[in-house]
Amino acid sequence: MTEVADRVVGERRTPTADELATWRWFLRAHATITRALENELEAAEKLSLASYDVLVQLAEAPDRRLRMTELADAVLLSRSGVTRLVDRLERMGLVSRCPVESDGRGVAARLTDAGFARLRTASRVHLTGVQRHFVTRLDPQALEALEGISRRLSL
Asked: What does the domain layout of the chain look like in residue ranges?
């Protein structure tokens, strides 16, 4: 069999060795950077990267609130996962739950003033880490190319 024939499953082609290597480098880079950012946030602010993401999403939302389903979509967590995370953030006083006015059964998460203050402090740590672990390692052309690639992959 030829190499191409070996890479065909049904009617679909499987990745080449070089394509798989690129995929693995992408995964390794993502894991390395997110692990470093997570460790820095945990050490400095006792806040997970997922918690930070929830706070950011709420801070950027109108009235600093999102329906729980919208929040789950925004942070790429399951509904049950975001519910557990919001539970923890609520116990910390960073988020509160409130009814959705247009829907008697709907529930939204709202960023509290304490949550906004915590986000401002944590942002210094996080943005410094993004600069150190990501931005400084790429030149402007590479950053622009990566943005284009990431946008295409996100569709």
From this structure: 3-154
d(CA 145, CA 117): 34
What's the chain's average pLDDT?
92
Q: Give the DSSP H or E segment for 67.
A: strand 65-67
Beta strands in 75-141 (DSSP E): 95-100, 103-111
In whole angstroms, give the CA distance from residue 125 to residue 50. Answer: 15
Quote the percentage of the chain above a pLDDT of 90.
Answer: 79
The helix (H) or strand (E) run that includes residue 119 is helix 113-133
| CATH number of the 3-154 domain | 1.10.10.10
Distance of CA 130 to the CA centre of its chain: 13
For the segment 41-58, what is each residue's pLDDT rounded down to a tens digit?
A: 999 999 999 999 999 999
Task: Give how far Cα 135 sits from Cα of 2, 12, 84, 125, 138, Å.
Answer: 42, 37, 32, 15, 6
